[in-house]
Amino acid sequence: MQVVRKTVTSYKCDVCKTSYTNRKEAMRCEAKPVEQKLFGIGDRVVCRVVHVCNCQGFQKFKFKPVGKIVRVLKPEPMDGEDNKWVQRPDALEIHAYQYEIKFRCPKCRGKRGYVAYTPELTPLNNPATKVLRKLFKIYS
What we know:
Order of helices and strands: EEHEEEEHEEEH
Distance between the termini: 64 Å
Largest sheet: 5 strands, antiparallel
Number of helices: 3
Number of strands: 9
C-alpha cells in the first residue's frame, strides 16, 4: 500500500479571512478598502427591503421591518448577487459589513431575523442620526 500525500498552498486575505488558491486574487482582495461601520449593536434601524409574512388570517402581509441590530458580521467582499439587491456602484470594490437584525411582524408579532448591508438600513433614533443621514446621502 502506498501513501499519497498532497500539499495544497492557499492564500488568505488579512481583512476578510477568505482563502484563495491564487496569490494575485488574495492580494486583489486585500487591496479593497473596508467600508466604514455605521451601526453598532443595539441601534434601532428600519430596513428598506419589504418583507412578506404569511400570518395566520392575513394573506401575505407586506411590511418594512423596524428592529434592533443584534450582531455585526465581519467585513466581506460583495459578489454580483449582493450588488443586485444593494444597487451600489462601488459595491464590488469594497469589503462591506453585514448587520443581523431582529424584529417582529406588526400583525402576528412573530419574531424574525434578517442580515442586511448598510445601504439597506436607515437609522432610527440613534444619537448620531444627523451624521448618519449625511452619510446616507452618499448611498441614496
